[in-house]
Design a protein that fits this description.
Elements: E1 3-9, H1 13-25, E2 30-33, H2 72-78, H3 82-88, H4 95-108, E3 112-113, E4 116-124, E5 127-134, E6 139-150, E7 154-156, E8 170-172, H5 176-183, E9 188-193, H6 196-208, E10 215-219, H7 232-235, H8 240-247, H9 251-260, H10 262-266, H11 270-284, E11 292-295, E12 298-304, E13 308-313, E14 318-323, E15 326-330, E16 333-335, H12 339-345, E17 375-377, H13 382-385, H14 395-407, H15 432-443
Parallel strand pairs: 1-2, 1-6, 2-3, 6-17, 8-15, 9-10, 9-15, 10-11
Antiparallel strand pairs: 4-5, 5-6, 7-16, 12-13, 13-14
The protein binds flavin-adenine dinucleotide.
The site of flavin-adenine dinucleotide has 31 residues, from helix 1 and strand 4.
Amino acid sequence: MKMYDVIGIGLGPSNLSLAALLEESTGLQALFFEEKESFTWHPGLLLEETTLQVPFMADLVTMANPRSEYTFLNYLKETGKLYLFFSYNEFTIPRAEYNQYLTWAANKLGNIRYSSKAVNVELDEKGYIVTVFNAKTKTYIQYFAHHIVMGTGQVPNVPVHVNDEWRDRVFPALRYAFKREELLNLNHITVVGSGQSAAEIFFDLMEHQNSHSFTVEWITRSPALRELETTKFRLEMFTPAYVQYFEELSFEKRKEGLAYFYQLRNGINPETLDKIYRKLYHRSLSSNSIRASIRLHTELESIEHGFILNLKHLEEERSLSTRTDAVILATGLKPNIPHWFHENFSHLIEWESDQHYKVGRDYSLSFKEPNPHHFFILTGLDQSHGTASTNLKLSVFRNQLIINKLAGYELFKIESTTSFQSFSSAVQGDDSFQKDMEVVRDVSYY
Ligand SMILES: Cc1cc2nc3c(=O)[nH]c(=O)nc-3n(C[C@H](O)[C@H](O)[C@H](O)COP(=O)(O)OP(=O)(O)OC[C@H]3O[C@@H](n4cnc5c(N)ncnc54)[C@H](O)[C@@H]3O)c2cc1C
């Protein structure tokens, strides 16, 4: 019976980063399971000209080890694209290229098993028993590990009931690119949602209206199409300093903070909004109808056969109905928590509320009884670590803390100055900048 030091469940950017960092910097025996048959990152939303919302430095490893073999820059070098990127001269990379980069890195790593779904995880006194179903061989195999890292990501949040037989016409945004061709010959398409995906799909459909006659409508609960906040000071909310500050607040204060910073995470890229507005304006010059509309303040309450959309204007509190031929639900994502987690671990761990498990600073679950076998979790962290917790910018930081815990010492040193602003009344770090700030504060009392 082989005992791994750590088993990772799910292989998105979070656990892929962990796999790369572990392989290069530790002798720990690690194995990662991914249920898909090969690596892909959100293939249904790799639309033309869409970009990541984080700089390329938020790759799998740079923030821990810029000299790593797995940096985005090394990917460019190995694939002969370094000069093209040099002249491209932008920090945000195409989403499709991010997927290519991740696939390149995943193909270099030997400790990943695809078509392998973790269907059960249990804890005994020796560690974790992970039962994996292999979709190719149709077999169940058990693996053993001292520690677990659950990186199962997120699944679409579907706010209304959708009948099974509607699924070709009413589906989550994550399937958009696969279904688009089937939609283009319909008469009316509705996009529901308030964030970046809704905006991108709305724009993409508008582009396809040049050669098709459908009308597209965008329905959003938002009172305004909100821009993603990208001011430099706001970006400091996506730093270790802020996450560590947030994580120490009381549960109630964290809940309040989350509502406040919602927009930071869920706004729409200003360029996308500008492109949409520009297109609408140019269309308004021609005698043809615009064939694209946006309803604000409007919540989708239910869908009936046909498809009739029952809507509610949230401010006027008025109900209304419209007819459409297809609905794309860009209504967000929610943590993907496997059933076995609830069944096997709910009673063993501490909870902050009915729905929120208690997670330590190092992303390990808090067990009621002393347990030397850590269970790290990389999804559903908003309540514990804040709106930035699962942002790609911080996935390397999360993994540094996890690896330090696994190694038993500070293998990765976290930079002491990660923001100019101080969030806590306590002094953060011992660096000269923070010290100077304290001196200035003291002096100002006199
Ligand atoms: C289109 C899109 C663009 C985004 N762009 C950004 C961005 O620019 N910046 C940003 O910060 N965030 C972005 N996000 C949000 C978030 O960062 C990404 O969703 C990111 O992929 C999360 O990474 P992850 O590894 O935690 O989870 P995921 O990427 O969701 O990966 C989880 C993996 O686990 C696998 N899995 C699940 N259960 C099991 C199981 N039981 N056994 C085996 N495998 C399993 C799944 O198949 C999946 O491959 C974006 C999200 C979307 C949808």
